[in-house]
Amino acid sequence: TGTMKINEKNHLEVGGIDTIELVNKYGTPSYVYDIEAVKQKARAFKAVFSKRKVKAQVAYASKAFSCLAIYQLMAKEGLSLDVVSGGELYTAIKAEYPSEKIHFHGNNKSDDEMFAGLDYQVGCFVVDNFYELDRLNQFTSERKQRMKILIRVTPGVEAHTHDYISTGQNDSKFGFDLENGQAKQAAILASQMPYIDVIGLHSHIGSQIFELEGFNLAINKMLTYSKKWKEEFGFDLSVLNVGGGFGIQYTVEDEPLSIAEYIDSIITEVENVTDALGLNMPEIWIEPGRSLVGDAGMTLYETGSQKSIPDVRHYLAIDGGMSDNIRPALYHAKYTGVLANRANDQASDLYSIAGKCCESGDMLIWDLPLPKPQKKDILAVFSTGAYGYAMASNYNRIPRPPVIFVENGSDFLAIQRETYNDLMRLEHSLLSNN
Ligand code: LLP
Predict the structure, then answer these.
(1) pLDDT of residue 165
(2) pLDDT beyond 90 at 99
(3) Is 327 annotated as a binding residue?
C-alpha cells in the first residue's frame, strides 16, 4: 500500500526515500510513517460520506498513535479527534486541534480530566457510566456551561475478533447496557440535566473487524431503541456514532474490506433502518484508529544474533521487540517483513524473529521466509503504525525508538529517540553525592 517500492539498489523505499538512508540517518529501531498513505486513508473515509451526501464526522481514534505531529496532520485533513485521557487531550491542545472537533472518551474520566474537557470546550463527551453522567451534571451546572454528550452503549454485539479487544458484548466494562434498561435510564436522566444536550448514541463493537454483520446489528439495535425512546420520552437521535474497528492487512491471511466498502455498507444500513422505522437520518460519526495509521507505518530493525536448532528452527534476533511492539506477545498478532537492504533477494529458509527482551514470549514473527541472513541486515516489519509506538514501553530499560514521517522525498523527525538520560529523567538518587 501507499508509496512503498523497491528501488534500483534493491532497497526498500517509502515516501520517496531509501529506508537504508533513513537507517543511516536515524539508526535502528525506527518507526517510519508513509504520510501520503495516511492522507489517502483520511480522504477515502471522507469521500464516501460526501459522495453519499451524508452528514458525518470522521474522528481519528488517537489511541492508535498519538503525538503532536500526527494530531496536526489529522487536523489539517479536517478530521475530528477521539481522545481518551487527559494526556491525549493535552497533546491535542498543544497541537492546536479545533476544540469543537474533539470527542472525549474514557470509562473513568477523573475530575481533572473532565475539568480539562470543559475548560477546552471539547465538542462532546462520550459518557460511559452513571458516575460520569452525575459529575458532568454537577460540573456543567456549577459552571453554567453547556456540553453535548453521546451516550455510549453496549449493543450486545460480539464482533469476530480477538477476545481482548472486543468491547461490544454485554459483559464489558464500557458503556450502558441497552438491553437491561440502563442506557434508557441514562438517556432519561441526561435529558433532564439543565446544561447537558444529548445528541446521540455511541457504540464500538471491537477492533480489526473484517465483517459487516456486527456493524449492521449494532446500527439496528441503536436505531430500534432510539425509535422506542422517541415514542416513550421524546428522545431525539441526531448523531449515531458507530465507533471504529475497520480491519487492515497485517499478513496475506488478512482480507479486510476496503474503506469504501465498510463505509458504504454502514451508510446503507443506517439509511434503510431509519427509513423503515420512520426516523430522521442522523449524522453518522465513525472513529477509525488502526485503519488510518496501521499499514502506513513500518518498523526498521537491525538483525543481530542467530541461533539454529537443527531440524527445528532458526532464530534471528533484532535490536527491538516487545518494548516497541507488544502486539505479538499480547494478542498473538501476526506480522510480516522483508530485508530492506536486499528487498528482492529470494527467501532461502524460514527464520523466527526474536526480540531482545528477557522474555521467551518476546517473538515478533514466527517462520518468516527470508534470504540467508548476513551481518547487520535491516529488517522492515510492516503495518506497525497502530498500537505500536502507542503501546511501547521501556521494559528492560530500552529507550523508545524515534518516529519518522516520510513524504515526497523528505523526512521529518516527529518523535526523537529516547536517550538513557530520558529514562532517568524522573528519578531521584539515594546516594547523597549524586
Ligand atoms: N473507538 C473506541 C471507543 C475504541 O475503543 C477504539 C479502540 C477505537 C474507536 C478505534 O479502534 P480501531 O479503529 O483502531 O480498531 N490495542 C489493541 C486495539 C485496542 C483497541 C481499543 N479501542 C490492538 O493493538 O489491537
Answers:
(1) 46
(2) yes
(3) yes
User: Ligand 1: which of 287, 331, 334 to mutate, most ligand atoms within 8 Å of CB?
Assistant: 287
Percentage of the residues of the chain whose pLDDT score is greater than 90 = 94
Whole-number mean pLDDT of the chain? 96
Q: Which active-site residues does the annotation give?
A: 358
* pLDDT at 164 (0 to 100): 40
If you compute the radius of gyration of the chain from its CA atoms, what whole number of angstroms results?
23
Of the candidates 218, 277, 270, 222, the residue with the CA atom closest to the CA atom of residue 244: 218
* Domains of the chain listed by start with CATH number: 5-33+294-424 (2.40.37.10), 35-290 (3.20.20.10)
Non-local CB neighbours of 145 within 8 Å, separated by 6+ positions: 118, 121, 139, 195
pLDDT exceeds 80 at position 262: yes
Mean pLDDT of 390-397: 98
Task: For residue 287, say whether it is annotated as part of any ligand binding site.
Answer: yes
Q: State the pLDDT at residue 163.
A: 44
Residue 303 pLDDT > 50: yes
Ligand 1: residues within 6 Å at CB? 61, 63-64, 82, 105, 165, 167, 204, 207-208, 243-246, 287-291, 327, 331, 386-387
Q: What residue's CA is closest to ligand 1, atom 16? A: 387
